[in-house]
Design goal:
With 74 residues, this protein is mainly α. It is built from three helices and no strands. It has a domain of 37 residues. Helix 1 runs antiparallel to helix 3.
């Protein structure tokens, strides 16, 4: 949140730091955003589910059309 005046609300002009996605969320992009948040916010995922989290990210990149030919899916 970019509450520069400290009033607890993001007023007009405060949220213009360039970190916002201004396009439309397609179902594919929404799924990718969910997967990313799932991986980032799992506090012990790297220990207990490391391979699974890498698979999620790999599949997400492939679904978005990224070139994953040089990557190895665990």
């Amino acid at each position: 949140m970019n509450d520069t005046n400290g009033n607890g609300v993001v007023d007009e002009g405060e949220a213009t730091n360039g970190n916002q996605y201004k396009g439309n969320f397609t179902p594919r992009l929404l799924k990718a955003a969910y997967n990313y948040q799932f991986v980032v916010k799992d506090p012990g995922g790297f220990v207990h589910n490391g391979k699974y989290l890498i698979q999620i990210l790999y599949d997400t990149l492939a679904n978005l059309g990224a070139d994953v030919s040089e990557l190895v899916r665990p």
